[in-house]
Structure formats: structure tokens, C-alpha cells
């Protein structure tokens, strides 16, 4: 009311501006937007206002427009600033703000258009061009981004942003599929900027390159350098590096190293549940691999089952849970083979597979693996009985499990079958049909698999010939 009582003047303009600014500071953005608009529309012609407060008001309108999700208001304010105050020091900051916010709104083409307007002589030009390059990355136009980063390095050799651009050039190079050049760029980055905050990510990328190239020893060494470094704060990347070092050790059959690294994560779990779940799963896999060469396989399988059980009890709906149920079932299946006198392990195996089947996060592969595991468990349990009459019901149940995978009976709408598990189910089912001396079923399965998996046709044709011979011999 006080502002309205003052005649149209510079004092009234200042009062209106202060009202709008106060509303902004109090978080009353809707009224602040209206007040700044009133200020810019009503007092535009006052020379002192035009030369002192107008550009600040328009900059506020750009910011408030985006905060209120009113892109039109922000755009209008930026356009007015360019038109009304072309020499303002706030032009380039407003252009940067437009580019950054439009990029966040997933409008990279519009962002580029605004960023390209930043003056070539502006100290903000280097940042603007970096943001332009990122818009290409945002659109997955990595070749364009690559060219822009390379041009940037030529244009701004002394910019403090150079380390960031060198890093992003390496990342873009990697995304174009040029792994060897990306590796060279990352290693150069680490040589020139060993303490830069991006160095851990570069170190991780170098380790990842070694991993993909199958250079597992160097991969483990590189990841170890990262997680043992005291030059950087401990972050999720630190633990991911330890995890990757364990995976590299596991892949090169360094099982003792792998077990130690995975155990270090689960014994002192970081605040990253997904990573901890992965570590438990990897530890379980490692223990199962150890069991295959251990003199105490029974204990190793029990420990592996414990690791998988921990996941099922503590990680809820995480997508790794159905996989853990399936692997837990595999452990009990192996324990049943170790202790043939205790049939309860088969029950524990089938119960685990059933949990994998019904878990809401189970993928086609998870469900197919569980079906195959259940079929194998039932077939093995049948072997514990002495007569065909006792064995037959369990064998038929096993065939039902295999059949659900072979004939796509577990697929949900939009899902595609997992060919690996279809092959496994088919071969297990054929073998069981032969054991049951069900020659027509075995031949029919062979013919069906030939249609599903043409590369297996020669092998299956030979098997069909043997089946016919066996049938004739009967």
C-alpha cells in the first residue's frame, strides 16, 4: 500500500523492487514473479531504473520462472534482457542459467541455442562451450561431443576447466567404442592431474578397460590402487573398486584373493545396500567355486548357502534376491550329492527354487534357472528310490518342470525366452526321457530343440539315430 501511495518515481520503483526481492527471499515465488513483472513493465522508461535495477529484476525472473516450472516466463525474461540491456554484465550469467536449466529439463537443443549466445570475449565462454558439449552427450551424440571437446581444448588451453574437459573427452571417446584411445586419454589425465577430484573415476575407468580386455591381473592392480588410495575421500566408488578387484581375481581363478576382497566388504558393510548384496552374492559364488576344488566341499557349500540366505533375508525386493534363492537351491543340490543319506537337502533345494520362481523381481532367466534346478533336484531325488515304480512320479514331476521352460509356459506378456536355459532344460529332459525309456518323448524333444536351436541340429540328429536304435533293440 505504501508503494502505491508514492507518485510514479524512482522511489516507487525501488519500493516495488524491494517488495519483489523480499518475496523471493521468503520463498513466495508466485507473488515475487508478479511483483518483478510489475516492476519491469511499469518502470521500464525511468532511466535510472533501466540502468541499475532492470537487468537484476530480469535475471530474477529467469530464475523464478524455472523454479515455478514456468519456462515461458523464464524465456520471456531472458529475451527481454537481451533486447533491453544488451550490454548488461548479467547477460552471460542469464544465458548460462537458461542453458543449464533447459538441459536439466531434457531440452538439449534449446540449451545449446542459448549457450551459443554467450559472447566469445566473455570469461564464461569456456564454461558455456563445455555445457554445449555435454548437451551432445545428453542426446547420445558422442561423435559430436567428441569433436566439441577436442575443439574446446584448442580454444581454451589455459582454462581452469581443462582437467574436466580432458576427462569428459576420454569418457566420450570410450562411448564411441574407441576403448584403446580412451584408455590412453585416461592414463594421460592421471599423469597430469593425479590429485584432481576426477582422478578416482579415471582410475576406475582404466581398471574397467583392463577388465574388458581380459587383462585381469592389471585390472585387479588398478582397482586396488583406487581403493587403497589415501588421496581421496572414501566414497561408493571406493567400495565399487574393491568389488571389481574381487571380480577380477575371481575371473582369473584367484579365489583366495576374491574371497578376501568380498569378505572385507561384507564384514564391514558400507552404507550402500545394493553393493553389499552384490558382495554377498559374489562371496557365495566364490565359495561354491572353492568347494569344487576343496577337500572339505561340504563346509564350503554350507558357507555359500549361508551367504545366499543372508541376501534373501535382508535385501527385500532387490533384483538380486531371486538369483540368491536360485543359487541357494544350487548349494543344497550340491549338498544332497555330498550327503546322499539326507534327502532333506533336496527339499531345501526345491523350496529355494520355488521362492525364486515366485519372487516379484524374478527375470525370465531367474525363473527358468529355478525350473531347471527344480527338475534336476526331483530327478536326483528319484534316484534315491530303488524301483521304477517309486521313481516314476518324481521323474514325471521333473519333466513338468523342464517342460515349462522348453515350451515357454512361464513367460509373462512381453517377455522372450532365455535360450540358454531352454537348451539346458531340453538336454536334461532328453536325458531323463532316455532314463525312463520313453523313446518317443525323447525323440520329440530332440525335434523341438532342433527348431529352437538350429546350431544343435547335427548333434540332435545323431542323438535321434541312437534313440531309434535303442527303441528297436527293445
Task: Describe this structure as you would to a colleague.
With about 475 residues, this protein is mainly alpha-helical. The protein has a domain at about 1-90: Alpha Horseshoe (Serine Threonine Protein Phosphatase 5, Tetratricopeptide repeat). It is about 75% helix and about 0% strand. The chain has 25 helices and no strands. The chain has helices at about 1-5, 10-25, 30-40, 45-50, 55-65, 70-85, 90-105, 110-115, 125-140, 140-155, 160-175, 180-190, 200-210, 215-230, 235-250, 255-265, 275-295, 295-315, 320-340, 345-360, 365-380, 390-405, 420-435, 440-450, 455-474.
Number of strand elements: 0
CATH architecture of the domain at 1-88: Alpha Horseshoe
State the CATH superfamily name of the domain at 1-88. Answer: Tetratricopeptide repeat domain
Give the integer mean of the pLDDT values.
94
Instruction: Please name the CATH topology of the domain at 1-88.
Output: Serine Threonine Protein Phosphatase 5, Tetratricopeptide repeat
- Main sheet summary: none
CATH classification class of the domain at 1-88: Mainly Alpha
Portion of residues within helices: over 70%
The assigned structural class equals mainly alpha
Shape: elongated
Low-confidence segments, given as residue ranges, are none
Q: Cα distance, first to last residue?
A: 107 Å
SSE ordering: HHHHHHHHHHHHHHHHHHHHHHHHH
The radius of gyration over CA amounts to 33 Å
Note the beta-strand portion.
Answer: under 5%
The helix count comes to: 25
Amino acid at each position: 500500500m505504501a508503494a502505491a501511495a508514492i507518485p510514479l518515481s524512482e522511489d516507487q520503483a525501488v519500493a516495488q523492487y524491494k517488495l519483489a526481492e523480499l518475496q523471493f527471499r521468503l520463498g513466495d515465488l508466485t507473488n515475487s514473479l508478479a511483483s518483478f513483472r510489475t516492476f519491469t513493465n511499469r518502470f521500464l522508461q525511468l532511466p535510472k531504473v533501466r540502468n541499475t535495477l532492470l537487468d537484476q529484476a530480469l535475471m530474477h525472473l529467469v530464475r523464478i520462472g524455472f523454479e515455478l516450472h514456468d519456462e515461458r516466463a523464464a524465456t520471456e525474461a531472458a529475451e527481454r534482457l537481451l533486447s533491453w540491456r544488451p550490454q548488461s554484465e548479467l547477460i552471460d550469467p542469464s544465458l548460462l542459467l537458461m542453458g543449464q536449466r533447459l538441459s536439466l529439463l531434457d531440452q538439449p537443443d534449446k540449451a545449446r541455442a542459448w549457450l551459443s549466445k554467450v559472447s566469445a570475449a566473455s570469461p564464461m565462454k569456456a564454461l558455456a562451450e563445455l555445457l554445449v558439449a555435454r548437451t551432445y552427450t545428453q542426446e547420445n551424440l558422442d561423435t559430436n561431443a567428441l569433436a566439441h571437446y577436442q575443439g574446446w581444448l584448442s580454444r581454451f588451453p589455459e582454462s581452469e576447466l581443462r582437467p574436466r574437459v580432458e576427462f569428459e573427452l576420454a569418457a566420450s571417446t570410450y562411448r564411441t567404442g574407441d576403448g584403446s584411445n580412451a584408455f590412453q586419454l585416461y592414463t594421460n589425465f592421471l599423469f597430469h592431474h593425479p590429485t584432481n577430484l576426477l582422478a578416482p573415476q579415471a582410475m576406475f575407468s582404466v581398471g574397467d578397460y583392463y577388465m574388458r580386455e581380459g587383462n585381469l591381473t592389471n585390472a585387479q592392480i588398478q582397482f586396488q590402487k583406487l581403493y587403497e588410495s589415501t588421496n581421496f575421500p572414501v566414497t561408493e566408488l571406493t567400495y565399487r573398486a574393491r568389488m571389481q578387484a574381487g571380480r577380477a581375481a575371481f575371473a582369473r581363478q584367484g579365489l583366495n584373493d576374491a574371497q578376501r576382497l568380498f569378505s572385507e566388504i561384507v564384514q564391514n558393510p558400507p552404507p550402500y545396500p545394493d553393493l553389499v548384496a552384490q558382495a554377498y552374492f559374489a562371496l557365495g559364488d566364490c565359495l561354491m567355486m572353492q568347494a569344487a576344488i576343496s577337500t572339505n566341499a561340504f563346509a564350503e557349500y554350507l558357507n555359500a548357502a549361508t551367504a545366499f540366505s543372508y541376501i534373501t533375508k535382508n535385501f527385500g525386493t532387490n533384483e538380486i534376491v531371486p538369483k540368491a534363492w536360485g543359487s541357494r537351491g544350487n548349494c543344497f543340490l550340491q549338498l544332497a550329492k555330498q550327503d546322499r543319506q539326507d534327502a532333506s537337502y533336496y527339499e531345501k533345494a526345491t523350496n529355494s527354487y520355488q521362492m525364486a520362481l515366485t519372487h516379484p523381481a524374478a527375470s525370465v532367466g531367474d525363473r527358468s534357472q529355478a525350473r531347471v534346478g527344480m527338475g534336476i533336484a526331483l530327478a536326483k531325488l528319484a534316484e534315491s528310490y530303488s524301483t521304477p515304480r517309486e521313481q516314476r512320479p518324481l521323474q514325471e514331476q521333473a519333466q513338468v518342470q523342464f517342460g515349462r521352460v522348453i515350451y515357454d509356459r512361464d513367460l509373462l506378456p512381453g517377455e522372450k525366452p532365455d535360450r540358454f536355459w531352454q537348451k539346458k532344460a531340453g538336454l536334461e529332459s532328453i536325458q531323463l526321457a532316455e532314463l525312463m525309456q520313453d523313446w518317443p518323448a525323447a525323440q520329440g524333444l530332440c525335434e523341438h530343440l532342433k527348431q529352437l536351436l538350429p546350431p544343435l541340429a547335427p548333434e540332435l540328429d545323431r542323438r535321434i539315430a541312437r534313440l531309434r536304435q535303442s527303441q528297436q533293440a527293445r
